Amino acid sequence: MPDVRIPASPVLTDTEAAALDAHWRAANYLAVGQIYLMANPLLTEPLRPEHIKPRLLGHWGTSPGLNLVHTHLNRAIRDRDLDALCVWGPGHGGPAVLANSWLEGTYSETYPDVTRDADGMARLFKQFSFPGGVPSHVAPEVPGSIHEGGELGYSLTHAYGAALDNPRLLVACVIGDGEAETGPLAASWHSNKFLDPVRDGAVLPILHLNGYKIGNPTVLSRLPEDELDDLLRGYGHEPLHVTGDEPLAVHQAMAAALDTALDRIDTFQRQAREGRSPERPRWPVLVLRTPKGWTGPAVVDGLPVENTWRSHQVPLTQVRDNPEHLRQLEQWLRSYRPEELFDPTGRPTAQVLSCLPEGEHRLGATPHANGGLLLRDLPIPPLEEHAVPVDKRGNALHEPTRVLGGLLAGIMRDTARRRDFRVVGPDETASNRLDALYEVTAKAWQGEYLDTDENLARDGRVMEVLSEHLCQGWLEGYLLTGRHGLFSSYEAFAHIVDSMVNQHIKWLRTARRLPWRRPIASLNYLLTSHVWRQDHNGFSHQDPGFVDHVLNKSPEVVRVYLPPDANTLLATADHALRSRDLVNVIVAGKQPSFDWLTLDEARAHCARGAGVWQWAGTEEAVDGDDGPDVVLACAGDVPTLEVLAAAELLRHHLPELAVRVVNVVDMARLMPHGEHPHGMTDFEYDALFTPDKPVVFAYHGYPWLIHRLIYRRAGHAQTHVRGYKEEGTTTTPFDMVVRNDLDRYRLVMDVIDRVPGLGVRAVALRQAMADVRTRHHAWIREHGTDLPEVADWTWTG
Amino acid sequence: MPDVRIPASPVLTDTEAAALDAHWRAANYLAVGQIYLMANPLLTEPLRPEHIKPRLLGHWGTSPGLNLVHTHLNRAIRDRDLDALCVWGPGHGGPAVLANSWLEGTYSETYPDVTRDADGMARLFKQFSFPGGVPSHVAPEVPGSIHEGGELGYSLTHAYGAALDNPRLLVACVIGDGEAETGPLAASWHSNKFLDPVRDGAVLPILHLNGYKIGNPTVLSRLPEDELDDLLRGYGHEPLHVTGDEPLAVHQAMAAALDTALDRIDTFQRQAREGRSPERPRWPVLVLRTPKGWTGPAVVDGLPVENTWRSHQVPLTQVRDNPEHLRQLEQWLRSYRPEELFDPTGRPTAQVLSCLPEGEHRLGATPHANGGLLLRDLPIPPLEEHAVPVDKRGNALHEPTRVLGGLLAGIMRDTARRRDFRVVGPDETASNRLDALYEVTAKAWQGEYLDTDENLARDGRVMEVLSEHLCQGWLEGYLLTGRHGLFSSYEAFAHIVDSMVNQHIKWLRTARRLPWRRPIASLNYLLTSHVWRQDHNGFSHQDPGFVDHVLNKSPEVVRVYLPPDANTLLATADHALRSRDLVNVIVAGKQPSFDWLTLDEARAHCARGAGVWQWAGTEEAVDGDDGPDVVLACAGDVPTLEVLAAAELLRHHLPELAVRVVNVVDMARLMPHGEHPHGMTDFEYDALFTPDKPVVFAYHGYPWLIHRLIYRRAGHAQTHVRGYKEEGTTTTPFDMVVRNDLDRYRLVMDVIDRVPGLGVRAVALRQAMADVRTRHHAWIREHGTDLPEVADWTWTG
């Protein structure tokens, strides 16, 4: 380690420095205690094997650094009366964040059985990473956290999401040098090009270079310092370095650096808010270089541990069986001088507590980290203002997402003062036809402006960046701190955030079980430019599997909607935007498509989630009582179009066949009642699909998803599903459905193949259908367009 | 646009500059022609609406920049006799890369019907983005490409993968400023910390700042230039700028910059290879700033188009219907002076062709872009050298991935001179127990070295970086250029690359249908630290859904294996490493687990993919002929353990019950024979699972995956699947299976619940099983460990 760069004159008095050091030692002691001890928490007797947990789990390496940051943030918050939140990127250092929460009292306030005394300390220790206890990572259970300490990469984008529209909030963000190697984190630095110093809060990144990952040095820690500084300046930041391994010197340097950083942030914000600075500030970044596993065992079994990757998890692993390890652990714990830090009842001493802020200023108590406390209902305009009129079904065309754009613009307008609604997306808001938003707001942009620019503004509340990771992370941070939003994306590219949505769903699933965590607004996806409409892009842009991905996760948190037209999209979005603690995935087209339902019908249909479209079938005409001969089911806009066209063909050519058309909007309705809160009972399901009649189901995505949802239903064996089966290229929309056997003609053939006893007219019709498909192939190769009878088709009922 | 920085003295003679400009104009002409024309390719007559395609699709905006780069790479390759490959990050600019391929003749050599004359030009134009034609993006169909032009973010990591172990290869990589905003790209810059100037080739990034994405300015294009330079220097590069919109000046600047860059690369490599430079070089990066849609229509319908986002796709959209658009298109096309570029028969003139390299030096003809041409079989040591002895089943414990590590080390040893095998992973190779590799190689590392470092070397062939995106991209680039490799990852985090593997699978699926593309080595995943073993990490690290994700994709490309022990893992890996053109996902544990099969048995079992483990069941003992009363099926190491323990309980307590144990290694065996090449026929399936007996299936992942694979099988309705259902926390392995109802006791209860007529002893056994589960819950809360009878269990047969 190079020497600490001691500031010109110490910023801390000896008393202050001693108090900060005491707090830091206390936190370190508590972190080690959590990893190792199940008894004797205050070391009131010599350490014995039976005091040690049988399974040693947890991550020590990052903990002393996190404890240092927390200690110094406490001081700064207290001195400056800050509203602050901290995102702990190395959230696997759960012992550190838990230790600090216990020290500041928020842990005991949240979990009254874990008192701030010896008994509570014993519980704090034992519960850690213990079956039935608390996870070893920072998780929803940890007061003050909005960030799961699992998969790395998302701390900085979460921090920015939290800071947006929170002008008084400071969001500190500790970024480990391991995490800094991930793509999402590397991209997140540029979030500062989207942060308005006037209307948003500040983000203070603290890059913690402790040098090692699980088994390797880190890239950034081994850069020459000038190269690292170039990098951080290139990211738009001015670096402030704190380097060292001598605690008191590091305390002075850290306090000085933090003061400098906060002063600069204050200056930048004041200048911007007084209109004196049109430039994007060069925000500070702290670079904290301290040893991995600092203050832990230097050498174990002859190998260096402190300041190497060997301190990543549990530095001493054989404590129960190896007396030398046990001795080293006791020495390590006693090196913090616990008797100076805790009184005989286990309460932290006044010195330890002297640097702590109070009330909601404590990092574990900020309401921003329990966003539901701050959440207000969204003002959603009456849908009537945006619905499309449907005088005649299947004749007028609208772009569903454009209609939705009007509604979103209304919400954006009505939140102009509250500023608690944002729309994020990777450069596609206009492409996705949501550009009505630009009538009331703009795209956030803090970069250079040119005369030709349109719809950019420093205070815009549409966020566009060509990174789905940033969009997702910003929105998660925004929602978790009590606001609302929508993520619009091309359907195929939603997979980019598969892993992020996993973690958010897991967060919500756990948070819902914690009574003190208040419900937050749902994470709403609008997936468009979907698999069936990739004329410009082709095969590489075709993937409807995001739905499959989320439907693997906890049912209580996940909803998937496939509204078939503009008005159903409105009704669905309205529902999603009002919901709480969910992930709602809405798949809808942006291309002109037919209107099927009036707003009232759409509302009723969406409320049911799935229902018979009587007007589209022939059940009544053929026989009112016997039920259908066949069910044509559909989910998704393109499958609905093809099913309706198929239903029309059947009505014309086989009028004696009783066809029922069922449309499904809410995919979870198909699931068993016991497995999803929206699942239909078998009685409901059979009433809709019949228990025994053939069902030809045209589905938007991979067909086997339907099978996995309905395999327990009585009618499953009779259900034949058509969907996307990875066939595609750059071609017309109709050619796409033909290539995947989802087209109207194929569906008619499917019906004929499945309904017994149809007779000779059906045989002829089947052949005619096959002939049209053959004709299609020849026509499209020649003309590059669809058959006129397809291109000009409208519903004639 | 600021002025071009003209070099001190022009590097190109007037003749050279004119020739490059002619080639560039020709490529631009051909790019526009592909987007618009279906007839009159040489403009031999005035342009009429019927010459225009009915659907105008494609991306113009990036094309002139790509054409410029290709033109200048041609010159440099020819002048310097380079082996070069180019990765086209803005691969949506398909028209540009296709145009260049046609000009250099590789397109006609690959597709003889598209001749390099007027007829061929007409075909080139019409086929583009036309049904039955070619995709609008750079795709496998494009000669010289290894990079799909679909989802953005992966160009630079692909480029590095291609350069590894190819010391004579120059890999140019065009990075669009849109793509540069993505996380994976942002992280990819640091790949230079892993590139050995001695044994690897060079990567020359060309950052193309044309200023706009689909609808927005780009972040990097709006940075102050000093900030951008800081960023690129921070990435370890020395920037060389080429800026302008006046073609001849840009040609001079581009030629000068490219010469400078290539000279520097040459110097760095020479110094390193002569042992004169232990430092990581500061590799050059070209920053090319030219207008988006350069040379296209400046203004359309009164709005600026060139040099704005409006030129992203099709600048003139109404050409068939709007005479002014038609006039502008003709003017635009004629602005390239096609009569100077093509002779009357449509062949490019000598001037246009004068800058082209020859033979395999042409970018479209490099064998590195058709890696199968260069691929050699991997030397895989005899498995006998690494297999574990199994004298008694289920008694000895091995860490399966550690056993695999020995095999991988053998391969690594035997490829030491060939250098065509790499293992990539995010900082987890040792954690995943593959550290035998370090006996024969090391981790690639070009950063600073410290005394405490272990297993790092400049020429190491294990690649570790805390970015799954980089691991995946490096490996894809490596495989696509004809080498072999394996990606080891924690199971849950494989989802990080969901979207990347989609694109790779789509690439393979398409490439397999192109006879000229030779098979490449498969992309092999080892997923470990799996869902059932997350003691250190807990809920956030639990997700077995990567398998579900890949099984949605084209069956001919995808294989999923769940070897239940060390020897089956060896046999599976051996098979995967020999395979071609596949994505193999192998899920296997790293924790000590029981050995079940000898190597010979493992080979036979893996060859079958699924089979009866007769020694584990009681079928023979009870009755040799009648078949089983119940089938206990399992897939995955932990489910196999629980099934065997359940089978043992049944054997002891209900010896009269005929139990069959079936283990599935190859998940595709479950799929219908017609849907996957490995799928069992119904006859085979029924012989294994019975058509009518209860099946209790313990599966590693989400249980509904099994249902979606087997829903057409006769026995499906009788099949009850247990698996992971999103229940978990930091706890013991056995508690995990209990929480998810996959434990041995629950499986016994499931059997009792499903087999009719078992009688009173079964009722008692069921109660006893429930009692053990209750006892487990109490015990673990108290002790933090598993019940002794579980912890000490071994198979007694």
Keywords:
homodimer; about 800 residues; alpha/beta; Rossmann fold; six-stranded parallel beta sheet; about 35% helix; about 15% strand; elongated; EC 4.1.2.- (chains A, B); lyase (chains A, B); aldehyde-lyase activity (chains A, B); magnesium ion binding (chains A, B)
Could you describe the 3D structure shown?
2 copies of one chain form a homodimer. By secondary structure, chain A is an alpha/beta fold. Chain A folds into 3 domains: 14-367, 3-Layer(aba) Sandwich (Rossmann fold); 383-593, Thiamin diphosphate (ThDP)-binding fold, Pyr/PP domains (Rossmann fold, 3-Layer(aba) Sandwich), CATH 3.40.50.970; 618-791, Rossmann fold (3-Layer(aba) Sandwich), CATH 3.40.50.920. Chain A contains 26 helices and 22 strands. The first copy, chain A, has a 6-stranded parallel β-sheet, with helices on both faces. In chain A, strands 1-2-3-5-4 form a 5-stranded parallel β-sheet, with helices on both faces. A 5-stranded mixed β-sheet of chain A has the order 18-20-19-21-22, sandwiched between helices. In chain A, strand 6 and strand 7 (303-304) form a beta hairpin. The longest helix of chain A is centred in the first third of the chain and has 27 residues, at 247-273. The radius of gyration of chain A is 30 Å and the shape is elongated. Residues 1-6 of chain A have low confidence and may be disordered. At the A-B interface, helix 7, helix 8, helix 15, helix 22 and helix 25 of A face helix 7, helix 8, helix 15, helix 22 and helix 25 of B.
